[in-house]
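Appendix C reproduces, verbatim, an entry submitted by the partner laboratory led by Prof. M.T., so that reviewers can inspect both the input and the predicted structure.
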Amino acid sequence: MKIIKSLLPENSQTRNFLPAGYVETYSVIIPEHSRLTPDNILVAIWTDFPKWLQMLFKLRDRLVKPFGLKAGSSEKNSGQKFEEAIRTGNPLGLLTIPAKTADETVMRLTDKHLTAEMSVHIEKLNNSQLKISIITLVHFHNALGKIYFFFIRPFHKMIVKTITKRSIKRLMKSLMNNKNLSKQLNE
């Protein structure tokens, strides 16, 4: 599975939030799977971080707190609440879901220094494949937002590619196991 830098999809809901100070899209092509939804992918990306990424986020949170940037949630059930917010579209702290279609879910995180949208967009291709695009837009509100993003940008690119690949692989494996289990139960 290869994650590549790509163009913003023509029919993406994120186009409604342009212009932005930063726009980035990574895509991957996988076999078509009917139960693979933008919500499922977004939930997988944001609720199942590897340990090294959890540590990196904790370090980031400690470093940015003195500058008034909001830290991530350390609540015990934050993953469950995050999933509920993505699936229902209900706000949760800094998180809102400003756009949602059958093919795309756009998540927004707003701080006083910047606003970032992350979208999962799924496009069905002619050859029984799906093109999954992970889109990031960042709107800077002030100089501190630009400085903050300047320092996290190299990590952001690495994290998006790594976590997207990991999440889609895990989700596909889970869905295939559930499909096999369902098939076995129906036999």
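Residues 73-77, 181-187 have pLDDT under 50 and may be disordered. Additional entries are available on request from the coordinating office.
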